[in-house]
Write a structure and sequence with these properties.
This protein is of the alpha+beta class. The longest helix has about 35 residues. It is globular. The protein starts with 10 loop residues before the first helix and ends in a 17-residue tail after the last strand.
Length: about 170
């Protein structure tokens, strides 16, 4: 049986219109640099997802390492940490709202790669937990031991699972 078209306004369309206006207001509240980063992440996350699917973790890591520009190592400051935290939050937004829903691993790989390109030394961490009787795994990025973009960590980190971080030289002091 074919559904009939109802000429009265659809409550879902009204709700969607409000939702669209709210999201547009959120977009406008971002700085130009944040909009650019969010758009870049919306493109990067599906590329990372495709690379993982096609060539696996090891080759994805090697390919992204070749794309690093090896900038000078940046000394850690409060501003650098805040920018890294904001990058992780923007990756979570792009992972939820972008053209392809990106898992925590894909988001962590993209954030890790972008932080390395900025001269930082992040680590991808993997953890597990048991939630409602189910095994749950999670990946996140840490910078100087601080989990980026995480409200609270309920996962137990697995030691020795940093598959993405080649060693980097320490910052030079001048």
């Amino acid at each position: 049986m074919m559904p009939t078209l109802d000429p009265t306004p659809n409550r879902w369309l009204l709700a969607d219109g409000r939702l669209m206006r709210r999201r547009l207001a959120q977009w406008r509240s971002l700085s130009v640099a944040e909009r650019r980063t969010l758009a870049f992440l919306a493109i990067t996350l599906p590329v990372v997802a495709g690379m993982l699917r096609l060539v696996g973790v090891a080759r994805t890591r090697r390919c992204l390492a070749r794309l690093e520009v090896n900038p000078p190592v940046v000394a850690m400051t409060e501003g650098v940490m805040l920018a890294a935290e904001r990058l992780a939050k923007l990756a979570a937004i792009a992972g939820r709202r972008g053209p392809v829903t990106a898992s925590c691993l894909r988001q962590a790989i993209a954030v890790h790669w972008l932080l390395r390109r900025r001269g930082l030394d992040p680590e991808i961490k993997f953890g597990v937990r048991k939630h409602d009787g189910q095994f749950d795994a999670h990946a996140w990025v840490e910078l100087q031991g601080v989990a980026l973009g995480q409200r609270r960590m309920e996962h137990i980190p697995l030691p020795g699972w940093d598959l993405f971080t080649p060693p980097r030289r320490s910052p030079t002091t001048s």
